[in-house]
């Protein structure tokens, strides 16, 4: 794959009307040879996302909100790892998810069965089954809105909520041609304890772009929020997709209430236009 030019080094002469901000080249192993992202010094406001996306896209830059979280850690402190990041297009989403499922779901089933047996519950089931069910089909119902419009509306909602847990989120620009590639383009290491090469997860995000009109809207140190323009609208669709969520981010189920894949499908996937992920 030919590497696209990085427009960030010439950002100052690009003609973009940007607020004060910083270019980030800090990585886990020291300074990178070129900037990985730009982000603003202060909080974003509603409609900033749309303005920046329209202007930045012609240069090959896409917006994402970044947030410092409870520890006030911003991108220069995120242990970015561009040197271990490959290209999302070199990976197959189903192969990636099937591999994760084999590694994590089998362990979960084994530990769950052992715990059930110890508690005298031979029929106990935490909802995570050992056989990879395959990729979920795209929802039968079309999305109600343009997926980029849905992403902008979510960004506006987040930036307008000054009392919310994401208050203070800042706008960033990343050299990427599609939303799913944003984490890989900056060498994001949020899922490090699950996957060292975030491009493999970006291959899944590409598949979710195609099937669910998903867009990456927020990144934190180890968190991701995705807008969903075409969510599952039936229990069958939601349960099929929940298996992918488990493979993509086991901590969403294993370490987060309600600790059950079936309930997760009904509460966090069915008709949900926002997906949140967190890796321990």
Characterization of the model:
There is one protein chain. The chain has 280 residues and is an alpha+beta fold. It is 34% helix and 15% strand. The protein has helices at residues 48-57, 93-118, 147-160, 182-185, 198-212, 235-248, 251-254, 261-269, and strands at 21-24, 26-27, 30-31, 37-40, 61-66, 170-175, 214-219, 223-228, 274-278. The strands form two sheets. It has a seven-stranded mixed beta sheet. Helix 2 (93-118) packs across helix 6 and helix 6 crosses helix 8 (261-269). Residues 109-124 have low confidence and may be disordered.
In short:
The chain has helices at 48-57, 93-118, 147-160, 182-185, 198-212, 235-248, 251-254, 261-269; strands at residues 21-24, 26-27, 30-31, 37-40, 61-66, 170-175, 214-219, 223-228, 274-278. The protein is α+β, with helices and mostly antiparallel strands and 280 residues long.
Principal-axis shape equals globular
Percentage of β-strand residues: 5-15%
Mean pLDDT: 91
How many β-strand runs?
9
- Biggest sheet, spatial arrangement of strands: 1-4-6-5-7-8-9
Which regions are unreliable across 5 or more consecutive residues at pLDDT < 50?
109-124
Radius of gyration: 19 Å
First-last Cα distance: 32 Å
Percent helix: 25-40%
- Provide the structure class: alpha+beta
Q: Please give the count of helices.
A: 8
- What is the succession of H and E elements? EEEEHEHHEHHEEHHHE
Biggest β-sheet strands, sense, barrel: 7 strands, mixed
């Amino acid at each position: 794959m030919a590497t696209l030019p990085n427009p960030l080094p010439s950002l100052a002469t690009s003609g973009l009307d940007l607020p004060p901000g910083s270019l980030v080249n800090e990585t886990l192993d020291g300074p990178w040879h070129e900037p990985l992202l730009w982000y603003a010094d202060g909080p974003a406001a509603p409609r900033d996302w749309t303005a920046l996306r329209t202007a930045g896209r012609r240069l090959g830059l896409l917006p994402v909100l970044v947030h410092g979280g409870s520890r006030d850690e911003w991108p220069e402190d995120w242990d970015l790892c561009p040197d271990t990041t490959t290209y999302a297009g070199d990976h197959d989403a189903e192969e990636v998810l099937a591999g994760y499922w084999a590694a994590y779901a089998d362990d979960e089933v084994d530990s769950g069965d052992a715990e059930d047996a110890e508690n005298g519950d031979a029929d106990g089931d935490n909802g995570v089954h050992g056989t990879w069910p395959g990729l979920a089909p795209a929802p039968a119902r079309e999305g109600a809105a343009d997926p980029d419009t849905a992403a902008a509306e979510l960004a506006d909602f987040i930036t307008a909520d000054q009392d919310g847990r994401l208050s203070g989120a800042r706008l960033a620009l990343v050299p990427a041609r599609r939303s799913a590639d944003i984490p890989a383009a900056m060498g994001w290491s949020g899922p490090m304890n699950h996957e060292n090469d975030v491009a493999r997860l970006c291959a899944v995000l590409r598949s979710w772009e195609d099937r669910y009109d998903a867009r990456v809207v927020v990144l934190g140190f180890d968190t991701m929020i995705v807008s969903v323009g075409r969510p599952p609208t039936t229990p069958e669709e939601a349960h099929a997709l929940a298996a992918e969520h488990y493979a993509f981010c086991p901590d969403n189920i294993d370490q987060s209430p309600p600790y059950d894949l079936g309930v997760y499908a009904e509460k966090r996937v069915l008709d949900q236009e926002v997906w949140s992920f967190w890796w321990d």
